[in-house]
Amino acid sequence: MNLKFKNHLISLLLKDDRLRDEQGELKGNLVKEFANTIDEKLITLLLGDEQCRNTFFLKIKDAYIFKTNEFKFFLEDNSINNSFTQYSNRIGLSSGGKFFKDNTDVVLDFPFKDCVLEGGQSTEDGLDTYFEYDDTEEDYIEKQSKRKEIFFNEILAKDEIDRLLEPKAFTNITKYDSKGERKPTQFNRNEKGTITDNLIIKGNNLLALHSLKQEFKGKIKLIYIDPPFNTGNDSFAYNDNFNHSTWLTFMRNRLVVAKELLTDDGLIFINVDDIEEAYLKVLCDDIFNVSNFLNVISVKSSTPSGTKTAHKDKTIIKQKDLILAYRKSKKAKLIPQYSIRNNWDTHYSRLLLKDEKGDYYLKNIKEDLIEKGVITKGTKLENIDIHNKNFKEYYLKNSKKIVQSASHKNDKIKKISRNDFKDNVYVHKESNEIMGFYYNGRQLQPLEKGIHKIYHNKKFVDDLAMLLCDFWNDIDFQNTQNEGGVSFPTAKKPELLLSRIIELATVENDIVLDYHLGSGTTNAVSLKSNRQFIGIEQLDYGDNDSVKRLQNVIEGEQSGVSKAYNWKGGGSFTYLELAKNNQTAKEEILKCKNLEELLQFFETMYTQYFLHYNVRIKEFKEVISQEENFKNLTLDRQKEIVSKMLDLNQLYVNLSEMEDSRYKLDAKDIALNKDFYQLKSNNNGR
User: Fold this and answer.
1) Hey, is 329 helix, strand or coil?
2) What is the pTM of this model?
3) Share of the chain above pLDDT 90, in %
4) H or E stretch covering 123
5) Among the CATH numbers 3.40.710.10, 3.40.50.150, 1.10.630.10, 3.40.50.620, which is that of 168-177+200-337+469-578?
6) Could you tell me which residue, 112 or 452, shows the higher pLDDT?
7) CB of 205 within 8 A of CB of 227?
8) Angle, helix 244-261 to helix 205-216, in steps of 10 degrees
9) CA atoms of 503 and 221, how far apart (whole Å)
């Protein structure tokens, strides 16, 4: 199309008042949105113009069919939807001029390690996918060519995405408690019908999250995740070659559904490295709304020593992690947390005492300490060891009497206190009830307001405390490698960190979700603190995974925060796996030790699993796999090529197909699936 037609179309669209901004410019994104919804006014406007009618409509007898895709492609190709004015009232992450939030073209392709979605939305002639050796690259390059016959298809249309994200069937359902492991007969539920069992789900976390929606939408109080940081050397076996946009797409797809699972007063905490923190915050501002951003918590996670300091002359050494905190809405309330004080607050310098006549007076605290033999005469308040047994007993016993003075805004009371009582304590009363004590115009505040329940020496105790804000430097990251009886030397988070977040955001029996579960720290602390938990993990860590750790917790292991919660063991959880389909094929590919095993498995793969309809099986089998160039590739690259032939939308079994005999699901698991999703007998419809 030429420039003249482009200008003609813009002029036509500007006739619709809805499509003009304050400056009279075209709102390109709104045009696309109306096209997606087949807006009646837009369609009428286009149909009434001969050029547009001939370009964007297909006439069949007396009816005109709007060619939506061709219209949107024209907008994109001619930058009609990329005008500056699309950003006039919005800010957020975009790709190709389109906000992630508005982008219905799902582009998420993890072709080797974490396959989820593939492609975009477009209508093309039928294509064949094949591999051809490139001498320059010294590798096989994936190519496509048109088929001889015309076969129209959608690479990944919305209905395919909906099918991909349908609830999945579970298998190998097993309950663990102090008696061991067994097959449950049903899931436990509360009076509202919600499952109360603790759950660990093994499988792709995006698909698992969508499978939880029917049962847990709007019921999760806290989500904590520690996703792969995209540092290039993550200890998790995720694809380390993410760029910012790919990593953010990976995060967004999961955060959007995670938000749906949160209660209206729910909260989410995301552990992140500073490499992606700024990018992720913009994304989260868009998903959760910037008004629901709480803070970025900095957590001291290491000390500047050892190999970390090798490049101190080239960079500023990192010794912190960051935690993004968001609420779902303004209904969310936090439970303030405190850390222990390590020195005496010298503002607390007086005792508020009562004489024989019932009058109140002030006494210097240092004098009282000396009189009672707690300190010697020459000791300064600021040098007192607040952990000294005698001093601690003294201030806890007298916490209501030890006071400091603070300013206040009641001018009437200030005047009375200063003028009428001068150097005496003024007791302000209302209806004979004491409302406060004042001295020289200032209010007297007791130490008991600074005494809080805090974690100290592996216990929760009442002691002198400081309000925790956005900098946490009191958590030991150095000695947590073997907490829970599993070893995660570099990636495991301390139980105290999770305890603090759980105590900050929840009360007992609330549901806590972690969908990047790893070694299971979140679940372990949830069980010890009497919270219901759901954990999701795709990767298998063998003897160091969450299932093993939770078994240790049930048996009463005493690491981490066990003593703080007086944990003696007990509890239970139910383990579920997403029923695998092509995921099994992917795992078998990874197990192959050489090319011979890989090609042997390929014989099984194309007969028993779902391959892309456009893969040239015969050509790969008889030609490419026999070429020296292919044989000379690394085994990892050979595996990658074979893995790409799988239809990645068929990784797991959909709930609606679980009774298909080809998937061989156990009859007891089928019954438990029906119970989990509350399906009627012999009916998979929801």
Assistant:
1) coil
2) 0.72
3) 48
4) strand 123-124
5) 3.40.50.150
6) 452
7) no
8) 20
9) 12
